[in-house]
Amino acid sequence: MPQTSIGQMNMMRDTHETFTGNKALQIEEALIFETGRVEVTGVDVDEPVTEETRLGGLERHAPIGLPGLSEPETMRHYLRLSQKNYSIDTGLFSLGSCTMKHNPRLNERMARLPGIGDIHPLQPVQSVQGALELMDTLAHWLMTLTGMAGVALSPKAGAHGELCGMMAIKAAIAAKGEQASRTVVLVPDSAHGTNPATAALIGFSVKPVPARADGTVDPEEVRKLAGPEMAAIMLTNPNTCGLFEKDVVEIADILHEAGAYFYCDGANFNAIVGKARPGDLGVDAMHINLHKTFSTPHGGGGPGSGPVVLSERLAPFAPLPFVKRGKQGYALIEHAGNAGDAKPFGRITAFHGQMGMYVRALSYMLSHGADGLRQASEDAVLNANYVRAGLADLISLPFGNRPCMHEVLFDDTWLKDTGLTTLDFAKALIDEGYHPMTVYFPLVVHGAMLVEPTESESKASLDLFIATLRDLAISIRAGERERFTGAPYHAPRRRLDETRAARSPVLRWQPPEPIKVAAE
Amino acid sequence: MRYHPLTPEDRGEMLAKIGVATIDDLFADIPADKLLPEPLALPHHASEMAVERLIGAMAGKNVAASSVPFFVGAGAYKHHVPASVDHLIQRSEFLTSYTPYQPEIAQGTLQYLFEFQTQVALLTGMEVANASMYDGSTATAEAVLMAHRVTKRGKALLSGGLHPHYADVVRTVSDMAGDTVVANQPDILASEDLISKIDGETSCVVVQNPDVFGNLRDLGPIAEACHAKGALLVAVFTEAVSLGAIRSPGEMGADIVVGEGQSIGNALSFGGPYVGLFATRQKYVRQMPGRLCGETVDADGRRGFVLTLSTREQHIRRDKATSNICTNSGLCCLAFTIHMTLLGETGFRRLAAVNHANAVDLAERLKRVKGVEVLNGSFFNEFTLRLAGKNAYAVNEKLAHKGVLAGVPWSRLAPKTGHDDLLIVASTEVNTAEDRAAFVAALSEVM
Lengths: 520, 447
Hints:
heterodimer; A: alpha/beta; 7-stranded mixed sheet; 3-stranded antiparallel sheet; B: 447 residues; alpha/beta
């Protein structure tokens, strides 16, 4: 029997259009603004106890225009939307740098205990002693795992943690009276965009550091740039090429001799938990993405949590508020006036940070223990290298076929002369039931594909993933372009027109223009 | 370990396939003297039950809001969240997905973000809203930075009715960025003068409504004064439910509206995660921080959604980005938007009316207690008490001992500002008549 080509499959698809546009379990779903009505509500609210008002003449009269749905309609709307999403629970989520590992449901249960989820940040401190104990316990784990002297828990996500860490550095520089001169922050080209954005946000000027041919930073380049104007380096380690910066200790020494600080982007800390401590490597500040390394769910784009561990020289500058253990239990230090010897640089969020994420991360840590966390890092690295070994003969590796850490970076050299791009390859992977790898990042290699399988994948899962990527690669070599250029064919949507979205942005629903009826 | 699928046999086979002898051969780039030989000095792995016991013990030491008469507000509010909201946000496809970088398999997230942006724009009376910030306070700091970019000026003027923690967050960022902040003194009666302080260097005036003391403010005259001097009005709210009862900031002339969205759909959770709302005028959209979701079509011409205008953002623009924000509050947006969809306009306005009525009833009862004065001329669901001759912090602690979590003493938010007799009290739909009576009885005993 002849093989059905993609083109024929497409025709078959077109001839099987349904009346509704639905495809069995794949159901088209309108916007709430098209189906809801302002008079419908899915919440029964009691009658007000009084008609008297004290709104000072500022009553809202104009309608808002918010449609409502009853509870059954609401359930169906969001359930159908959910079915258009890929998730970790759906399958392997190879998105490099994002650490899409299993999210244990125990952690969700812990976050919903009334004594955690239903407490207010400004309740009397005596009524939240357990919450402060939890924060203190988390702090102990984070400091022990990183070998650092202090930790600021309150940053709300990784980039917020970067901001917090760089603010601590700026405060320390100011405390030495060097704020006018120490203004340069070194950032390698392979860094996450958040690094230069963070440094620039608080007035540092950003200077790039080139990488060596092997994908790591050359300490000699750092030495050339080191001087009295250098405030810090922002270095990701393991870096975004999936490589451990092997000269990290020398780089730290150069920085410290020059009076500068070492900010480590801890997005990839998950590769080395229990294997090495950033504190031993000369790091002064490092944020930890609890939503990556310690598996608090990513939730389609947050919430995250980005505590920053700090070296002894930066710890006193940690922002408000922080927890202090005392003879009478735990105290919450909320103002500089009762911070003792500490010199907090200020406040970066209204309250105490992401308690809901703290508890999930702590639950994850307690479940794993010191042994399990070390095992998780080893398995993450093992899995990434297994993928590398399974593909190295077909897909090009920019820095040679050498061990990587928790993620493996490919480039698009192997696609040369095929007329296909990294994006085409990624979109074809969608049809095969996978979430693609991170594409076109880091910027230092051409057509980057960064694969991070995480420790959550079994050997059988990796074997199928490798076999799938091999099949795609062989298909490219065989010139089967349509499998790629039109992909995805089987997702809820085909390729989306991003240019159109940006050129004439439609950022909210608008009621359709009323149909004009000609005057009679 | 229950979360690790690999067996020792798997690991052996995989190492052989990779072509190395031991796992540490893969860690060879770590300097040998820095490689840890064994697990660190922390407890070893534990069963689900064991972890539940440990965390349950800590949780058990806290007083949950729903277990007592509860009137604590000042930036976070206890509301009832329908059961279906919490069920839906735990759908795996929402909970365990990433930022929608591959839109073809993330239409669920993208469509709810589009709906969320529309709801926030409608609520605030603005033209566009983004896909969220971390919380109300960081959204406020971002609004100030945006106003600096729009006006090419560097001085922000903060109302004395702005939550002191919000003011601190703005001040911290501004100090670090080298910008100027001028802040009014605590403005208990909403009687401050802001207008005469606006000058040709002012980029924005930041006004909270309802303010931290619960007073309602007509933003109209301030908006006019701002616009006359080329400055922007940044309107802040910490209680999103208030938008169902009072005129929207957009209607009153605000240029940027930021606020805390926790009240809708999200638990108190000791201060986070929450969801920062951010809305503005269409003409400023390219200066906005944060993610934006937009409508487009796919290769078959069907409607779909993508993240858009990303040339503002850090992953494209790096040190020239409008903000460093990346991960924001996705799942909290989802909780917000589901709850808002359930409420609809009818439910939302009724919810706002109930909140206001409960607060009016509570204020009426409390002002009859000897030595207690309600300071507010107007309020939504929160107001400020003056406890004549008393230290409000101490009174609040005594009330807690009597099993009533009564409010937030001003001195906790801003110590040594000379108002130690003030207690900020909130009442929402969760408070019953019995709760209010218990508060009045306990306060009568303490005063």
